Amino acid sequence: MRILQVHTRYRQPGGEDAVVRAERAALERTGHEVAQHIEENPTARLRAAAALGGSVWNPMSARRVVDAVDAARPDVAHVHNTWFASSPSVLSALRRRRVPVVMTVHNYRLVCANSLFLRDDTPCEKCLDRGTWPAVQHRCYRGSRATSAIAAAGIAVHRKLGTWARFVDRFIVLSRFARERLVRAGLPAERLVLGSNFVEDPGPRSTTPSTSGDVLFVGRLSSEKGAHVLLDAWRTAAPRGLHLDVIGDGPDRVRLEQDAPPGVAFLGRRPAAEVMSRLLRARALVIPSVWYEGQPVTALEGLAAGVPLVLSGIGGLPEVLGGRDAGWVSAPNRSDALARSLELLADDTVVDDRGAHARERYLEAFTPPAAVARLEAVYAAARGADPS
After folding, report:
1. Are 3 and 379 in contact (CB under 8 A)?
2. CA-CA distance, 44 to 186, in Å (whole number)?
3. In 3D, which of 32, 35, 361, 316 has the Cα closest to residue 199?
4. Domains, the chain
5. Which of 76, 271, 304, 369 is most exposed, with minimal Cβ within 10 Å?
6. What is the mean pLDDT of residues 81-102?
7. Dihedral (Cα; 204, 210, 213, 219), 10-degree rounding
8. pLDDT digits (tens, 9 = 90+) for 191-238
9. pLDDT at residue 386, as a whole number
10. CB 198, CB 366: distance < 8 Å
11. How far apart are CA 199 and CA 295, in angstroms?
């Protein structure tokens, strides 16, 4: 099968960019041909402002996608991110060329101006049911009323026009939680297919989690990821014999380092291979997000490494465990609840048992072969859809 990936890279590399690369590699290993049409979100202020201004409908991006289709002649297009330099115009261009379209919905950008359903570190769904004016009122996109108005206008226009339903044959969503909200937003339920991310298999670990005193946080140091909640919980729990390594960088790093309790080290960004090596030697991985996470790749890496997860019970995060005892789920944005989960890490037997369940969960659901099989099924369904 010939597949055209359509994606707009984020200005700061993130999980979606990694997913696009990983899917291409896995599909090509299975014998598929994968071409890419990648746009870049500009970083220079004037160019970024111009691109943002065209985010509702960018005819130049549409023309570039048409050129990509004519060159690759794909059987199906797989769209990931169109914000903001591409715009939904690329979907119309694909339909004009009668290319079936699959779109992975990685976040809530189709409904929410900041894509997170988050305001003041608290989940907010006002724009889901009331229209997009609250996003402008509360300056939800980058703290600016002007840029929030642009983002909100795009959402309102395309919900009114039914752009997503008209031009996308199948949507891949990463959790039942996300699916329910997208249906409420008006996307056609029959086209919303549960899918998943995946990670490469690092192989079984050589030591059990209980032999380690390393607890890890891996992620962007910004408020939605909940590192501040974790530090407060660590201060309260003060787990004896354990230490917390914080891997990642972001706008909150300086403040978090200044406020960190004893036993916490900030390691900054580390290469992917080093992160996996540390996971394979870790006792636990903590993901204390306060926004409606979908299916973070970091969580899947933890499962693959056979390390138990300590998760916020928010969004799609609990679904990552698949009902297995592969970790603990605590109330989101509650440092006291998270502290109680951290205290449970003292039990070596339980830690090892949950680490074994984590590895089983990975092998069950998040390997490359499993992911490719799901993608092939979605592509086949999209090709069978009526491209009217």
Report:
1. yes
2. 35
3. 361
4. 2-198+368-383 (3.40.50.2000), 209-365 (3.40.50.2000)
5. 271
6. 97
7. 50
8. 999 999 999 999 999 999 999 999 999 999 999 999 999 999 999 999
9. 60
10. yes
11. 12
Q: Which pLDDT value is given to residue 23?
A: 98
Backbone angles phi, psi at 174, to 5 degrees: -100, 0
Kindly tell me if the per-residue pLDDT of 130 is higher than 90.
no
Per 3-state DSSP, the chain is made up of helix, strand and coil in percentages (nearest 5) of: 45, 15, 35
Q: Report whether 39 contacts 61 (CB < 8 A).
A: yes
Asked if 39 and 16 touch (Cβ cutoff 8 Å), the reply is: no
Helix (H) or strand (E) holding 324: none
pLDDT bucket at 103, cuts 50 / 70 / 90 = very high
Question: Quick one: CA torsion of 330, 331, 332, 335, rounded to 10 degrees?
Answer: -80
293, 312 Cβ separation under 8 angstroms: yes
CB 33 within 8 A of CB 98: no
pLDDT (average), residues 322-333? 96
User: Which sign does the torsion angle of CA 19, 21, 24, 26 carry?
Assistant: negative
CB of 170 closer than 8 Å to CB of 378: yes
Q: What tokens were used for 158?
A: 């395309």
Confidence class of residue 385 from pLDDT cuts 50, 70 and 90? confident
Which ranges in the chain belong to alpha helices (H)? 15-29, 45-53, 59-72, 89-96, 126-130, 133-137, 145-161, 163-167, 176-184, 227-237, 253-259, 272-280, 297-304, 335-343, 348-365, 368-383
Q: How far apart are the first and last CA of the chain?
A: 22
Closest to 224 measured CA to CA, from 106, 121, 330, 141: 121
Is there a contact between 338 and 233 (Cβ–Cβ < 8 Å)? Answer: yes
Q: Which residues of 328-357 are buried (b: 16+ CB within 10 A; e: fewer)?
A: bbbebbbbebbbbbbebbeeeebbbbbbbb
What global pTM score does this model have?
0.95
- Residue 59's φ and ψ, nearest 5 degrees, are -65, -30
DSSP symbol at 273: H
